[in-house]
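Glycine/D-amino acid oxidase-like deaminating enzyme: structure tokens wanted.
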Amino acid sequence: MQCPKPSISTAVIIGGGIFGVSTAAELCRMGVQVTLVNDGPLANGASGRSLAWLNSARRRSLPYHRLRLAGIERYRVLADRTPGIDWLSFAGGLTWDAEDDSNEIADIYRHERALGYPSELLSGDDVTRRIAGVDGSQVTSAGAILNGNEGWVDLPSLINKLASEVTELGGTIVTDAGPASLIVEDGHCTGAVCADGRSFNADKVLLATGPAVPAIVAEQGITIGDDTPVALLVETHPTAHPLQTVLNTPRVAIRPTPDGAFFLDSGWSEEEVIVHDDGSFEAPEETVSQLISEARKVLSGAPDLTVKAVHLGPKPIPGDGEPVFGELQELPGCFVAFSHSGATLGLVAGELLAEEMALELRHPLFDPFRPERFAN
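Answer:
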């Protein structure tokens, strides 16, 4: 049986993050002529400041869980096909909760086990013995959950790989073109026009501009719920340390990087980001110092961590917390990709969006996440 042929010949992708570049690569593989436009360099938005933890841990709706599992599996396939890469790891994820009434570790463990999600409950001593680089004495009395199927990806590295494939297959990537807007003719989306005046017409358009998606579709009278906060990600200088597992602890989340550094974030530090009247962001020095201190507490040997960079910017989160994928009913020809879990869903979303755009089908995995739910 032959693969179905695309029903379109051209597509424009607006956005150079993981959703945009992943979809572009899939469309190019299908023989569609793709033009991708971005307001700056590739990965200059949320994809470039993501913790990029590959997971479906804790609680969420069952359809969302299934989609995330499919996302993780795509990375497993990628890892098998590209052995030796240093920007994708499946060393597991380890999480524990605070020593107070908010601790849900026992319930989360049973919930994950009931779903068949790989989950082990470890004591602090178990953690010290089994998880390299973690100070198990910091684990609270309820224990920690080890999800052995989880991992991390360095999204800029993946985006660069996919972008190279796009150009090798004849696609065009236009960077530093300024913000783009949609071209609409007779109620249909027919392309994009960039701030620098260049316009690109196509059979189908994907809007994958991260936190800017709701505002851009609002210009067309379309509502997508938006609960986007400002995120803070601290990047350390490389240091000699054995941690490979992603940590999600009460006061800090930690993810290794390919060059031996760490990315750090947390909920409390995000809340301390200052948003100025001109729209710029600032991370107080005390907040950054405290995040470093919290990381040193949970890492074995309390390594001397120094700050290389502080990354600030909007973190895309839809209004109901779940992804938004698919064609806009109110604007045929325009597809959207707007989700918090960009790393985990990056490959599978690109695959399914490309199929929907090029083959004119609606994938059932996307049905709970259609943009029209906000209109209803």
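The longest strand covers residues 307-314. DSSP finds nine helices and 22 strands in the chain.

Cheers.
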